[in-house]
Amino acid sequence: MSELGLVRPDMAAIVGQPFGVMESYPVTASDIRRWAIAVYHPEQPPAHYLDPAAEAEGRLVAPLDISVFAWAVAHREPNARQIEVDPKYTAVGAMEHNLGVQPPDLFRALNGGLSVDYTGVRIRPGDVIRSSTVIERYEEKESRLGAMLVTHNATTWTNQAGEEIKTARMALIRY
Amino acid sequence: MTDATTEAPAGEFEVGAAIPPFTRPAGFHAWNRYAAVNYEFVDIHMDDEAGRAAGMPGAIGMGNLIWAWMHCAVEQWVGDRGLLEHLECRFKQPALKTDTITITGTVTGRSTADDGSTLLELELWSENQTGTRTAPGTARVRLHPGN
After folding, report:
1. Domain that holds residue A100
2. Cα A9 to Cα B108: distance, rounded to the nearest angstrom
3. Partner of A122 for a Cys bridge, out of A11, A61, A155, A163, CB 3.0 to 4.6 A?
4. B124-147, pLDDT tens digit by residue?
5. Residues of chain B contacting A120 with CB distance shorter than 8 Å
6. Whether residue A166 sits in one domain with residue A110
7. Residue B20: C-alpha distances to residues A134, B12, B15, B106, B142 (Å)
8. CATH value at residue A142
9. What does pLDDT average to over chain B?
10. Residue A4 lies in a domain
11. A93: closest CA among A5, A2, A170, A10?
12. What does the longest C-alpha to C-alpha distance in chain B come to?
């Protein structure tokens, strides 16, 4: 058991193991334009997003922050390890059940911050994006709210050519 | 609202330079459009009662939209002269529907990479109309050689 007793051995054992593997539908030019228009509203997005020739000429790339899984997922990799848990766990962002482990009994949560690293490989119309997540590490903290468990997750996107696009990290604080 | 200029004033990528402000009104017009592309139909972003039930003065904006606006600010500033390589931030205070949100920042570091490109370290943040920093962050931009 860890120092503050929040990280059980079975939790420590799933660090670094992939879960939530999924594949997007092919990204469309319309997906890209609509995202850019929404985030730049009420001004116009940069001109290349609306240039009717950009797609045919290979100049249309998606905004870096686009989510290609927001509305639908084309394919989820079967996951025989997943166990059912009470919704009170998933309501605070628990993910351990995806790897066959009972989440910790912590039912309050905070977003401890986001970070992302981009490789320079851009998303273009027709791309199919694969996403895979791992728990990179657990961290324990004492705060005025008591003992806190910080779970550092990393989600990596690759395209149909196997090129890495980005790794996005989120720190989920449960207490 | 104001958008960053795409012209290149002298010293715009030097240490101490300000990142041109990207300013947008918070509120349902922005939030509904973002919800529609990001499937983020969450009561606290759609309904004042739900926001109040969560202890807020009313409905609140999405942290993800602040994140998106940070990307916009860098994209409008750098354009095709470079690429955002890293961004991180913490959400300290949500936007309310009467807020005006500005993304801005400063260049805090500049170095040359092995391939000749220039790496800029940025302090980047979201602030509301009172000047309160609601989402402090940092970023790194790689400028293509020649910029």
Report:
1. 9-27+71-174
2. 42
3. A61
4. 999 999 999 999 999 999 999 877
5. 83, 85, 142
6. yes
7. 36, 9, 14, 9, 17
8. 3.10.129
9. 93
10. no
11. A170
12. 55
